[in-house]
Amino acid sequence: MIRDRGNIKWTAMMLSEHVRELRKWVDQDNYTERPELNEWDLQSIQEELELAYKRQCETQIKTWGSGRITQYHGIVEDIDLKRMCIVLKIPFGTQIMRVADIINVQSMD
Question: What is the pTM of this model?
Answer without folding.
Answer: 0.74
